[in-house]
Write a structure and sequence with these properties.
GO terms for molecular function: oxidoreductase activity, acting on the CH-OH group of donors, NAD or NADP as acceptor. This protein is α/β, with parallel strands linked by helices. The chain is 42% helix and 15% strand.
Length: 260
């Protein structure tokens, strides 16, 4: 307990999945948490879980695919707690986004320019918008930690979801570039690269793990990871325990990419 004691963590994508797990676990480790998502109801549930466990937090409903939404999120954190020590960029969409945006997870030949821009805005631009607001603040206060949630799809080729993979690959190299540029300011930038994680983003594919042979072909551990397992990776990178980690891409995939 207390690995983030007295720090303020701004966590995007906090309504569900990895972002929500980060919000709850960071609060248990002493951080004041500010959760951001597009859906107020999900945020309210996440905040209740934090406060019911004795933590302290706030939430901001915002669309981070726009500069204005990112500004709203950052301003909300500053109004709530007056500073941001940790930024976790977990906002994003995946395969389930097809239900509300047909064609968003297609291959290049079947992706329209509009869908390309849409997914990049949510999965990559949002991280850029948040970083460009947080970094000057962290410089002024003497340092901070940025943790980006990417994916092993950012360094794998896939038959579809090409905009998604491009965005995740972009976030990986943005993380490395942030490290190189801002280490002098005591700002660490790292990322986790999850594998197949049991979230609603991939809910339609979870039955694949019911077949042991198929499950083993996906990952040697033959099961999906959990949001909490990803959040603990983020916790490590955000904490002072990772004081010499900078530009690190921490793969948490049950061994999926070990075969490559």
């Amino acid at each position: 307990m207390g690995r983030l004691q007295d720090k303020v963590a701004l966590i995007t994508g906090a309504g569900t999945g990895v972002g929500r797990a980060c919000m709850e676990i960071f609060a248990k480790e002493g951080a004041k948490v500010v959760g951001v998502s597009r859906t107020q109801a999900n945020l309210d549930e996440a905040l209740k879980a934090v406060t019911d466990a004795g933590g302290e937090g706030a939430v901001v409903a915002a669309d981070l695919s726009t500069p204005e939404g990112a500004q709203k999120a950052f301003d909300g954190a500053m109004q709530a707690f007056g500073r941001v020590d940790v930024l976790v960029n977990s906002a994003g969409v995946g395969y389930n986004h097809v239900a509300e945006s047909e064609g968003s997870m297609a291959d290049t030949a079947n992706t329209t320019p509009e869908k390309w821009r849409e997914v990049l805005a949510i999965n990559l631009d949002s991280g850029f918008y948040m970083c460009r607001l947080a970094i000057p603040h962290m410089q002024e206060k003497g340092g901070g930690a940025i943790v980006n949630v990417t994916s092993i799809s950012g360094y794998q080729g896939l038959p579809a979801a090409h905009t998604y993979t491009a965005a995740k690959g972009g976030m990986i190299n943005l993380t490395r570039s942030l490290c190189v540029a801002y280490a002098k300011d005591n700002i660490r930038a790292n990322a986790i690269a999850p594998g197949f994680i049991a979230t609603r983003m991939v809910a339609d594919f979870l039955p694949l793990f019911d077949d042991e042979a198929v499950a083993e072909s996906i990952t040697p551990m033959k099961r999906p990871g959990t949001p909490e397992e990803m959040a603990y990776g983020c916790l490590y990178l955000a904490s002072d325990e990772a004081s010499y980690c900078n530009g690190t891409i921490l793969t948490i995939d049950g061994g999926t990419t070990a075969r490559q």
